[in-house]
Structures are given as structure tokens and as C-alpha cells.
Amino acid sequence: MHFDDRLATVLRHRATGERAARTQFRQLLDLLGGPAGGRDASLEAAAYLRLDALGALIPFRERARIVECDGVRIRNARLVAWLAEAEPDVAAAALAQARLSEEEWTQAIPELPIRARGFLRNRRNLPAGAIAILDRLGVSDRGLPLPERASLAEPAPPPSAQIADAPAEPSTAGTSSGDDSGIAALVRRIEAFNKARETGPSAGAGAAAPQLPLDREPRAGARRRSELFTFTADVDGKIDWADPPIAPMVVGTDLVRGQDRSAPGPQNAFASAFFNRQPLREAPVELAGADRIAGTWLVDATPRFTRTDGRFYGYVGRFRRPADISAQEQAESEADRIRQLLHELRTPVNAIQGFAEVIQQQLFGATPHEYRALAAAIAGDSARMLAGFDELDRLVRLEGGVLDLEPGSSDFGAILRKQIEQLQTVLSSRVARLEFDCKATTAVLALEQQDAEMLAWRLLATIAATTGAGERIALELRQEDDQLSLRSAIPATLAASKDPFSTQTRPSGGALSPGIFGAGFSLRLARAEARAAGGELAQEADRLVLTLPLLTGAAVPPSRVDAPDSATG
């Protein structure tokens, strides 16, 4: 059996000078540039650490020249990702030299820095899958289109009507290739332009000056607005690099000047994130200047930190124009992003919960009781987190209009009595009480039983969890035309807040809880459920009022009406 010990041999030697550093840097690129299969993982990790150290000794332009050498072959996706994090010159050279398979490109491109993706726009030999990924990520300006070729079998079209009256001039020596040549057409336009300038006003007031064929489309007085460009900002928040066509107009722009980091509002999003070294997602920024860049932009950017000591040295990201979409489409887009985020959060929590249950149930062998107790606590915490994710997902889908409650039939009065009776057993220890008075002759809703129970429990459990010791909360259910209304006094804890729907109140402990996100969130979710059912949950003076439409058009049995002193206890 043969072992490839070249990587260990290179790492065994120390680079004692600049020349030796360049040589070893090139050697490590050669060895790491090949397919990663069969290499020792620890040696490979040591090699990347050595490359970091050598990079600090070699100027970035020299490193870029080493990467650009014809002898350097980069066929390792991990090396491509590592080089893409380097300075722009090095990253551009590496992405130009990289030779990956289509599958490797499709996996690597989404993980590349935003700036590095832009360097790929000049590649002409990317596989179709990589091009599709770049298009989805917004990197669609990959180089200039090929010029249109005139057919040699047909004569070139005549000059524009603007110079139709200009006299024909003999062709110069440089146009001997024939009238169909693009050069010949250019020369004719130059000659016509010079003659029109010499004749001056005699050309007539309505005559337009001939234009050179640099742009096939007429100009409307202003350059076309840019829709997307990448940038980097320094430690002071000033743009220090941008895409070449945009750079003269934006380099030096101070993105945080005069901004108060504590000031609220979306317009201060960049300044707030900058001072806190946080990534940005669709932060609105106003740029002033030329028509091409003036106006509102959305910024997606991420902070940059040095590899050696973790120092902050600016931002890298992109500016893009806001999409002209409707409010409904924007809400659906936001809801989709939140659902994707929740999906990504559920995956690790599910894994943690599964491992905790394995330990707690001793599926892989005997486990000390202390560890089993810890595992049970972790499993319980994971379950609460997953329940919170489910509530977030439900709220997002309800508010985004992508979730409808199931239609059906349910007796809301019976549901309330049963749940209040369950809650009263817990409230008794606090000498507190929910006093329920049902005055409705019918309380049948056009809502499926499970959805009706979930809505009722969310509201009642939140009220009960925030009810203080010795407090009595009056609840009244009555019928108003074709609506059913439940009026509840607001517990003192919630009444202390100006808006119960935005309060962050969380009980200190106990068997009752309004949920992992607090009472305000639970009330907002109950309000969203009520609205999805065609009703409303709102605050009226010192009461919370839930209104829901009654089931009509069918004979339904009346709800059982208890005696006036029907407070459960």
C-alpha cells in the first residue's frame, strides 16, 4: 500500500523568508487543489492554518499572481471557498482558475461571499447548473453579450434618417473592406457628423445631429438607472470599493454619517447594524447623486472580520432596488422567509430532543440517574421550543393569509365551560376565580371543534396565567344578532400595560403559562385566529372582547344555560 506523504513533507519545513514563503504557499495550493479524497483530515486542517500564516507574509497581489499561474490547478471546492474569503484580487483569480464539477459548483456558490459570487459573472465556461444558481441569487450580469454580426449575404442597412440628406463621401483607405463593414459604417457616421457640424445652422432647426453607433437605443437624456451592484465598506462605514461601472459615483459615500444608533425606524437599519457589527437583510438606504444611483436601495450585507485576531474591518454586500410588488406579495414573501427560518431552527432542536430522549430512556445502555434527569429536562425544553416554533409558524401563516381555519360546527359555550372548569382547579391555589356568565341562547360557531377549542384555550389560558392572587375575572358570553361575543375583564397584570397585545409579560412559574413568547404574543395569535374565523379580538376600555360569527342556516340545539351563579369552582 502506498501513502501520499507530500503534504506532511511540506508542512515539516518552516518558511524562513519571503521567497521560501511564496514557494511553500504555491506547494500547498498545488497539493490542496486536487480532489480531497483520501487525505488525512488533521494534515489538511494544518495545511489551511499554514496558508493563513503564509498569507500574512505575502502581499495579496503576489498571492493573486501565484493563484493565476497556469500550473496551479484548483479542483477542490473547499480550497475555492477558502480563497474566495481572501482579498478581491486573490478571490477573483481563484474563481477564474477553479475547475469544479456541476454538482460541486451548485453546492459551493450559495456558500460563497456575495462579493465572490460577483466575480463569477465573467466566467464563460460555467456549467448550466451553476449559471442557474447564479441567476436565482441575482448574479445575472455575467459579462457583455456578443456583438451582433451583420449577414455578409445582405447589404448593411442604410445610415439613420438623421443623416439621409448628407452627401456621400468617398471611402478612406481604412474602409477598403467594403461598405458592409462595421468600420466603414462608423467612418461614414464620423464624416457625416463633421460635415453637419461645419454646416452649422444651415442644416435646419429640425435636423438632429448624427450619432455614433455606440448605442442602438435612443437616449432619453439620462442614463439608465442601476438595479444592482456589490460593494465593500471600511471600518468607518464608507464605501471603499464597488463594481467598476458604479464605483466613481459611490466610493467614499458615508453610510452611517450623522446617524444615531439608538434612533428607531427602518431608515436607520444600516447604522444600527453597523454599530452592533450585525448582518443586514433588506435594510433601506437612500443614496444621493447621479440619476443612475439616486433613490432608495435595499442593502444585504455581512460584517467582515480578520482571520488572525477577529478584528472588524468593514462590510461586504450588495445594493439592489426595491422590487415593485404588492403588499400582499411582500407579506407572502416575508412569511415564506420566516417559515424557512423556522424549518432550519426545528432541525437542530429535533436532533437535540431525540438524543436527550435516547439518553433518558437508556436505549444505548445504562445511564446514571443524574444524567437521565438532565436529559429529561433538555427534552422538555426542546418540546417547549418546538411548541413555540409551531405557534410562530401558525401566526405567520394566519397573518400572511396562507392558512384558513377549518369550517365545521362547534358549541363554543360548552367549550368555554369545560376549559374554565379545568383552569379553576389551578386558580384555586391562588384564591383566584374565573366567573363565567353565559347569556347566549345559542353559541354554535361555524368553526371546526379543534380550532374552536384551540382559540378558546389560548385566550382563557393567557387570562388565567396573568390573573393575580385573590383576583376575580368576570367573563360574559352573549349573543348579538348573528355574532357571539365573549367579554372578559383584563387582569391587573395586563391592565398595567398600555397595549395587552404588545406586552412581554411572562409568569414567574407555575402550571399555567401564556406560552414561550409571553402573553402579548398569545393574544396576537388568538386575534389572528379570530380574524381568520371572520371575527375579532380587541380591547374595549377595561375589557377584552372576542366576537365570532354564529352558525346560521341550520337548526342547531341551544347551549345549556347555567344558573346565574354558574361560576365554576
From TrEMBL:
Residues 148-181, 196-221 are annotated as: Disordered. Residues 171-181 have a biased composition (Low complexity). The keyword Kinase applies. Residues 333-401 form the Signal transduction histidine kinase dimerisation/phosphoacceptor domain. Its EC number is 2.7.13.3. Keywords: Kinase, Transferase. Signal peptide: none annotated. CDD domains: HisKA. Pfam families: HisKA. It catalyses: ATP + protein L-histidine = ADP + protein N-phospho-L-histidine. Transmembrane segments: none annotated. InterPro entries: HisK_dim/P_dom (IPR003661), HisK_dim/P_sf (IPR036097). GO terms for molecular function: kinase activity. This is histidine kinase. It comes from Qipengyuania benthica.
